[in-house]
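Page 37, continued from 36.
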């Protein structure tokens, strides 16, 4: 099974919303950075021996995933989630 279309992507990609944006669009940097943060938190959670800390990290991971989804839709981020993450 081949996944190569031989058409190229023209330097664009689609967001979750279906909108096509340039691969240099800053929103992709934001989503990528949030994704890297989620991965780092996952590592910290896997190394933690404290159940309460692991639970708090998991909650933060979920909030960040929702935030990344908002960015990839280019919709306004939920102020409540942003405030919670800032704490």
């Amino acid at each position: 099974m081949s996944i190569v279309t031989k058409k190229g992507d023209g330097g664009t990609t689609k967001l979750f919303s279906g909108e096509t944006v340039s691969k240099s669009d800053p929103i992709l940097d934001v989503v990528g950075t949030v994704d890297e943060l989620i991965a780092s938190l996952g590592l910290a959670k896997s190394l933690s021996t404290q159940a309460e800390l692991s639970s708090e990290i998991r909650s933060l991971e979920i909030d960040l995933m929702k935030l990344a989804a908002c960015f990839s839709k280019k919709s306004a981020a939920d102020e409540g989630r942003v405030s919670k993450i800032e704490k």
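Residues 11 and 56 are 38 Å apart (CA to CA). Flag for discussion at group meeting. The chain is about 60% helix and 5% strand.
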